[in-house]
Write a structure and sequence with these properties.
Helix content: 10-25%
Oligomer: single chain
Number of helices: 9
Largest sheet: 10 strands, mixed
Order of helices and strands: EHEEHEEEHEEEHEEHEEHEHEHHEEE
Radius of gyration: 23 Å
Distance between the termini: 21 Å
Structural class: alpha+beta
């Protein structure tokens, strides 16, 4: 099957509204066919149960994916109290049930507050984290036991929108919005909320609404993309993702040939954050990082290219 724009797709990002039941790998495979190129990748796995924003890179934009993976994420989710599952979500077998009728709204809000901010989180055992070269989920599904170490994550927002009773009041469902750092597992938040309240918990619905600067308002379904493959141009994608530096013509030429340029005069750059550097015509030339003294030409500091993009950002 030829892609909608086969042979004509420029480098850029496709913001996909992933359907439920599809893996991130499934989506990449579909877009390889639609775009007519093998140079396709995604910026962070989204569970098959989940829907929403999956950022996919095409051609040269796949080089941006490493930076997108580390950005913050926003989710809309439903957490069920009173049941624990092997996967910490609705796709797994129920392992324990406890009547949650006595859990009060005030107790829920207090437990949510305790899981907000900088916390230590143990990822779900059914996750893509590798243990001795094997995916954790593969080991669990094969009947093995996995104990993953905790790691620091930041939950900058954990907002409760509604609390309701289900199954005759035995269960409690909580609708929430979560804004969090990369590497945070919403399934693990559901599990830990239920554990803190003594009744167990798991995730019944999950929709990712933002990945860094890219939102679900920009996203298209696979059906829409099959009819019209909407690609966010590499230049526009980089402007949304990084601090921006406008280069002189001479600086653009130097960077295109691998030469250093004076440091970027941007506050975030001083802390080591990449800066997107654009030629006078608006084309992305490189991602820059400020460095320290390097000799007579740049005795104090200079900017070095982390990635250099060819003029025109052609697909090849």
């Amino acid at each position: 099957m030829k892609g909608v724009n086969s042979g004509q797709v420029r480098s850029g990002l496709i913001i996909v509204d992933k359907p439920q039941g599809w893996t991130s790998h499934d989506v990449v495979g579909r877009l390889r066919k639609l775009a007519g190129t093998r140079k396709v990748g995604h910026a962070g796995t989204l569970d098959p149960m989940a829907t929403g924003v999956l950022v996919v890179g095409i051609n040269k934009a796949t080089r941006l994916l490493t930076y997108i993976v580390g950005t913050s994420k926003t989710y809309e989710a439903t957490i069920r109290l009173g049941q624990s599952t092997v996967t910490d979500d609705a796709e797994g077998e129920i392992t324990a049930e406890t009547i949650a009728a006595a859990v009060t709204d005030e107790e829920i809000m207090a437990a949510v507050a305790d899981l907000t901010g900088d916390i230590q989180q143990v990822p779900s055992s059914v996750s893509a984290i590798k243990v001795n070269g094997e995916r954790s989920y593969a080991r669990v599904r094969a009947g093995g036991e996995v104990i993953l170490p905790s790691r620091p994550v930041t939950v900058s927002r954990f907002e409760v929108h509604g609390i309701r009773r289900e199954s005759g009041g035995k269960l409690r469902d909580i609708d929430v919005t979560v804004e969090c750092s990369s590497g945070t597992y919403i399934r693990a938040l559901a599990r830990d909320l239920g554990a803190a309240l003594g009744v167990g918990g798991h995730l019944t619905a999950l929709r990712r609404t933002c990945v860094g600067p890219y939102s679900v308002q920009q996203a298209a379904t696979l059906e829409q993309l099959a009819a019209d493959l909407r690609v966010l141009d590499l230049d526009d994608a980089a402007r949304a993702l990084f601090p921006v530096r406008e280069l002189s013509a001479a600086e653009a030429t130097d960077l295109s040939h691998g030469r250093r340029v004076p440091p970027s005069d941007i506050g975030e750059a001083a802390a080591g954050a990449p800066v997107a550097a654009f030629a006078p015509g608006g084309t992305l030339v490189a991602l820059l990082e400020n460095r320290g003294p390097a000799g007579a030409d740049f005795p104090a500091a200079y900017a070095k290219a982390l990635l250099v993009f060819a003029p025109g950002n052609e697909a090849a």
